[in-house]
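Q: Could you write out the predicted structure for this multi-component system? I'm mainly interested in how the pieces pack against one another.
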Amino acid sequence: MHIDSDSPARRIAADLRADIASGQLPPGGKLPSVRDLAERYEVSRTTAGKALILLKTDGLVTTRHGSGAYVRESHPIRRLGPERYARHHWEQTTVRAFATEAPESEAAQQQGHQTQEVSLVPADEPVATALGVEIGSPVYERARVVTREGNPTHTMTSYYRSADVEGTPLVDPSPGIAGQGGGFRVLADKGLAPHEITEDLCARMPTAEETLLLDLPPGEPVVELRRVTRTADGQVVEYARGVHAASRFVWSYTFAIPD
Amino acid sequence: MHIDSDSPARRIAADLRADIASGQLPPGGKLPSVRDLAERYEVSRTTAGKALILLKTDGLVTTRHGSGAYVRESHPIRRLGPERYARHHWEQTTVRAFATEAPESEAAQQQGHQTQEVSLVPADEPVATALGVEIGSPVYERARVVTREGNPTHTMTSYYRSADVEGTPLVDPSPGIAGQGGGFRVLADKGLAPHEITEDLCARMPTAEETLLLDLPPGEPVVELRRVTRTADGQVVEYARGVHAASRFVWSYTFAIPD
DNA sequence: TAGTGGTCTAGACCACTTC
DNA sequence: AAGTGGTCTAGACCACTAA
């Protein structure tokens, strides 16, 4: 009753927000046009447009240029816990190649899809520190964009010491390694079975590049994930960093209280 | 070279962003005024102002109404791992009251400070589910806003089954329990020593209320934390939820890869 | 009091979508 | 071709800050 009711633009936004909350404007539903709003509230089109901007930055509304403004569909939320790395996900699997498989096959669309690029790059500072190599020395970079139901959900880029993965399917650029845990499988085959993971998370607003890549609606934050994977000996075998569209994930961790 | 160089407003923002990145505009430094920019770039004041809005939503710049626009100071980042719950933080400590202590004493300011309110409230759905009580039944709510160096950094609200904490210092409204782990200490004293924690994290944009409470600059996301604390028996003794200013924290978790 | 950011109007043009 | 969001101008007023 005190905030949000000040300026005309905020007032209009508040009214629309209420309509959305009440379900009167359902997800996917079309909002009144800027010109409609301007007339109805007796304000300039600029001001009515401002209301839409406010709702966009709230993440409540998406606009399609030339078409209209729509109530944002809420995406299904995926819960991310340590189980996603579980051994049975990758230990039993054969290393599959997705070679000539049509990328829009039904299964691929449902299951999720990932594009992938592998290349040898000089290690930057965080990568070098994590992998214990010198800055600038060559490491394998495996960059992927993961898509689910047609929407890109996150990027993930892994780095490996070149000696660890040289000659494995991982670095063979032609077929590529399919899906989940392919990297872990390859490491295990080389006698470097992953055993422990440290994940660092932070949230921030996306860069312009990330907004394009992940097709983020304005006002949606991202979560940056940095992951260090070690063997039972404590040797680091993978360093990875990724960017997730915040609204599509919940992270969950369970741990014993330390002494 | 392709993004960000389109409209005049974006062009101005890009120039300023470059000045910030290069250090020519240092953190805390004052940006040119809207009227300056308008004249220099030969655009309307509205457009020059738009550039500032873009930088604000990027989180790069803060504005002080009537004073100017300033490059945002980057806050020291606190790393949050399971160690912050370590037993030695609360097991040995006496339960201190902060009674008549001046809230702006030097130590309090440095160490951080928290306001606190305890009350008996009806359990809402998530609280009831977590604590295993019926919706609407009375539970103790302990709400606090944590401040560090004069800036509010996060809120945290804990819920306890009323039988578990009845008659303890926790629910005594007059003195209040000081600082870290006071709640855990009290539970341990009642034979309900916390043993295991599950934390769920998600990132989103703040509500208007949160923006005020945490004094968030526009464009800064928050991380919502939900925490379930259990004894060694698996009994839930605390459910808590909090909202953190995203830019001031990194979360870190280490775990063994499950089977 | 002078300078600042914030917001508004009224009208214009553009780029895009839909039919 | 009609309707849409996006952006811009030029000028106005307000609320706030600082000297």
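A: Regarding packing and overall arrangement: The longest strand of chain B covers residues 138-148.
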